[in-house]
Amino acid sequence: MANDRFDVSDRVVIITGAGQGLGREYALAFAKEGAPPVLAEINGENVRNVAAEIEAAGGTSLAVETDVSDPDSVKAMVDAALNAYGRIDVLINNAAIFATLPQRPFYEIPFEEWNKVMQVNITGSYLCASAVAHPMKAAREGRIINISSGTVPQGVPGFMHYVTSKSAIIGMTRVMARELSDDNINVNTLMPGYTTTEVAHASMDDDLHEFIQNKRLIKRAGTPDDLIGAAIFLASPASSFISGQTLAVCGGEVMI
């Protein structure tokens, strides 16, 4: 059947930042497709709640409290996934700091805040990709999906640390894709626009939300469903000839 090309059932998918927002939505969606998600999340209560949601819907998952900026924590998470399932097929590098950030000029960003954003958004993605690369190389197959942001091509002011970190993700993707290609590991970037989830954003109000929608070719709010299809596509056999690319899912707000 043609739909088999999009089949991700039984694929083991690590999703970082899976306790809320888009990470939670990815986890619920992959579990529904029969792909057991490994929920890597620093907030223990949140990750247990998502695991309970998946179980209530008839799915299975593995919840692992994880600090993606800590190499030992990341190694323990990957080891737990391998012990539970014997392999890792997909990594979605979703964990990031953004919603809590106040909008302010770059020269007023406290160093501690700058550093934390870099540790989680860049170093966290690097550590998780490095940790899964070894079992993927041994299996000679895998998918890494890094998450960037539509703020990058727009140079959105007031969030230079976030925009900088998400710019780095695109460069990381290109290098990873080249270095892992001989082992049949595809690495791509998803670039979401602003997407409405249950997570409140410190700098988002109705006027800004309307402004964003009016810039889009498809003039509506972005929803998790818009990104789930793209994530499943990049994790599925249907995208086997795609690597090193950036896919913008933002209603045409940016064109790359």
Shape: globular
Give the class from helix and strand content and strand pairing: alpha/beta
* Integer tally of domains: 1
How far the N terminus sits from the C terminus, by CA atoms, comes to 33 Å
DSSP helix count?
Answer: 8
Strands of the widest sheet, in order across it, are 3-2-1-4-5-6-7
CATH superfamily assignment?
Answer: NAD(P)-binding Rossmann-like Domain
The biggest beta sheet reads: 7 strands, parallel
What is the element string, with H for helices and E for strands?
EHEHEHEHEHHEHHE
Instruction: Supply the CATH architecture.
Output: 3-Layer(aba) Sandwich
> Stretches where pLDDT falls below 50 for ≥5 residues?
none
**Total number of beta strands:** 7
Task: Put the structure in a nutshell.
The protein is an alpha/beta fold and 256 residues long. It has a single domain (2-248), classed as Rossmann fold (3-Layer(aba) Sandwich), CATH 3.40.50.720.
What layout of secondary structure does this protein have?
Elements lengths: L12 E4 L4 H12 L4 E5 L2 H13 L5 E4 L5 H15 L4 E4 L17 H29 L2 E6 L3 H4 L5 H21 L4 E8 L13 H10 L8 H12 L10 E4 L7
Parallel strand pairs: 1-2, 1-4, 2-3, 4-5, 5-6, 6-7
Structure explained in plain terms:
The protein has 256 residues and is an alpha/beta fold. Helix content is 45%, strand content 14%. It has a single domain (2-248), classed as NAD(P)-binding Rossmann-like Domain (Rossmann fold). The chain has 8 helices and 7 strands. A 7-stranded parallel sheet has the order 3-2-1-4-5-6-7, sandwiched between helices. β2 (37-41), α2 (44-56) and β3 form a beta-alpha-beta unit. α4 runs parallel beside α6 (160-180). The longest helix is centred in the middle third of the chain and has 29 residues, at 111-139. It is globular, with a radius of gyration of 17 Å. 45% of the residues are buried.
